[in-house]
Design a protein that fits this description.
Length: about 290
């Protein structure tokens, strides 16, 4: 019926089409602009609201993360860091407020696979080679074999492990396993990478090496990163923004911008690096006395 009408009056139909094209273009442009962004507005999360063991894990969280930035969440255990990350991932829903990823509800972003995730344990499948572990999400998403293999090879280059493609996870060190997990999380080119204490189980030297690796990956891929850590130097070395969180109920008490430019090994010995560490430490301390 509609099609007939359109043919009867091509003038109207063309105008109508043009209007919808313009609307589509506008929405794509605004979405483009929001790619890699995260916004939380007035977000609270209460677990077990109707029970005596009710926990207000987060209260009145307001956070705006711009595309391509590196944000660290730091704060004492139990202050709600993992809860906030899971809300951004759309794995749980806020009790109040709104979380948006790439300009759409977090739940939709999860369905659209807009983010990759990495945790403290690499959680690789022991019976699959490194290459096959990286290919796994691509298999689940229906990528063809050739495209999968090519992407896995690119990711292995990115994390500087090409010679380990056919090794099994148990043959790799902890740091290498974590690099494979990062490669797997980024294989399908998500705009956002969510990392929950990914280097927490590594020794200090490996950890510093991994931080440099992660910054290299971040620069290469332009992915927005949200990273949880307990280490103040790690937060300062990695981030463009540090969010200091306070417990009971979990809130973001301070947001500190870090402006150290491109990081190198020397960065860790610079005065402005130490000055930023002091700033974060003081922000964490000031909450203890309140
Ligand atoms: N699924 C859950 N059910 C009940 N309480 C929870 C749940 N997940 C987290 N919590 C509680 O919420 C608070 C914040 O937890 P979490 O986000 O894991 O903190 P963090 O990652 O900063 O250590 C803690 O008190 C924790 O016990
Ligand atoms: Mg946690």
């Amino acid at each position: 019926m509609t099609a007939e009408r359109a043919t009867d009056n091509p003038q109207v139909s063309e105008e109508g089409l043009q209007d919808s094209m313009d609307t589509l273009q506008d929405s794509m442009e605004s979405r483009q602009h929001l790619l890699g962004s995260v916004a939380a507005q007035g977000v609270s999360k209460v677990f077990l609201p109707n029970s005596t063991s009710k926990v207000t894990a987060l209260e009145d969280i307001n956070l705006h993360i711009s595309p391509g930035s590196f944000t660290t969440l730091i704060g004492p255990s139990g202050c709600g860091k993992s809860t906030l990350l899971r809300l951004v991932a759309g794995l749980i829903h806020p009790t109040q407020g709104v979380v948006q990823v790439n300009g759409k509800p977090a739940d939709q972003a999860r369905k659209d696979r807009d983010y990759g995730m990495a945790f403290q344990t690499a959680s690789l499948f022991d019976w699959r080679t490194v290459r096959k572990n990286i290919e796994l999400p691509l298999e689940l998403m229906g990528w063809r074999r050739g495209a999968r293999q090519q992407r896995a090879a690119e990711m292995l280059e990115l994390v500087q492990l090409p010679e380990f493609a056919d090794s099994y996870p148990s043959e790799l060190s902890g740091g290498m396993q974590q690099r494979v997990a990062i490669a797997r999380a980024l294989a399908f080119k998500p705009t956002l990478l969510l990392m929950d204490e990914p280097f927490g189980a590594l020794d200090e030297m490996t950890r510093e090496h991994m931080q440099a690796e992660l910054l290299h990956i971040w620069e290469e891929t332009n992915t927005t990163i949200i990273f949880i850590t307990h280490s103040i130097p790690e937060a300062v070395f990695l981030s463009t923004n540090v969010c200091v969180m306070t417990p009971r109920p979990g809130r973001i008490s301070t947001q500190i911008e870090i402006d150290l430019g491109k990081r190198t090994d020397d960065t860790r010995e610079r005065e402005d690096f130490f000055a930023s560490i002091v700033k974060v430490r003081e922000a964490l301390r000031s909450q203890e006395s309140t």
